[in-house]
Q: What sequence folds into this?
């Protein structure tokens, strides 16, 4: 009886230690994400939109939009902490994607469950909260759809990756737009703007340490090279690059297995 009681005490103590360690890890991870979100406040001036901390007065549904996008991003990142085997870095947020979803290379239609025919479900992105659209319904009744988002998510999922095993981000984390065309436009960030995004990119890579990093296109490759990070460069799927992207990302994924 005495031996049984001692064993139970040891087991209970071990469980308590493991639980305490897991709680500490979760707290540290949560703190890291919150610190990262605060770092994203530091967007450069000019024709740059910060979806997590600014309101798009012309196209947002209401003034709660930035807080909603922060919740989306937080849930997306938390789902992947400690599980990522592949990091994919794009160029910059697009107005059809992260501008309204708050998540790189992810459209509102993905979050709203309107890309299931492409094999992409909202729970692939996150499942801890319910997604909410932030764009007003007048401009795009079904929510915005971004071709790059659909191609990247669809390709990675079809190649058998679990959604929490890969994380998508951008070399320039904010949305650079054409000031003459307005918020609903995209442009390549300038070198000065890209330099302003380096700190956020470095912090992101520290949050998700990973041996396999993929750069979509030349801007992402240039930023990663400046950080002395090893990476695989693949064709960006935009502007007719979808076929080559799928071929190249498949090779990278095969090497990962």
A:
């Amino acid at each position: 009886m005495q031996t049984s009681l001692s064993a139970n005490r040891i087991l209970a103590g071990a469980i308590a230690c493991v639980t305490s360690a897991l709680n500490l890890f979760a707290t540290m991870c949560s703190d890291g994400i919150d610190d990262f979100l605060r770092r994203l406040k530091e967007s450069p001036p000019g024709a740059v939109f910060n979806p997590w901390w600014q309101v798009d007065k012309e196209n947002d549904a209401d003034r709660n939009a930035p807080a909603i996008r922060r919740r989306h991003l937080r849930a997306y990142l938390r789902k992947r902490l400690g599980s990522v085997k592949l990091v994919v870095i794009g160029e910059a947020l697009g107005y059809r994607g992260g501008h309204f979803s708050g998540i790189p290379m992810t459209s509102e239609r993905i979050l709203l469950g309107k890309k299931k025919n492409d094999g992409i479900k909202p729970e692939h992105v996150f499942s801890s909260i319910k997604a909410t659209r932030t764009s007003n319904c007048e401009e795009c009744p079904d929510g915005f759809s971004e071709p790059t988002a659909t191609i990247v998510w669809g390709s990675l999922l079809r190649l058998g990756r679990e959604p929490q095993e890969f994380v998508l981000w951008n070399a320039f984390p904010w949305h650079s737009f054409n000031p003459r065309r307005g918020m609903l436009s995209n442009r390549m960030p300038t070198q000065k703007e890209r330099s302003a995004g380096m700190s956020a990119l470095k912090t992101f890579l520290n949050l998700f340490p990973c041996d396999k990093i993929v750069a979509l296109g030349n801007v992402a490759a240039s930023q990663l090279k400046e950080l002395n990070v090893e990476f695989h460069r693949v064709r960006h799927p935009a502007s007719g690059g979808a076929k080559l992207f799928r071929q190249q990302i498949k090779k990278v994924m095969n090497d990962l297995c």
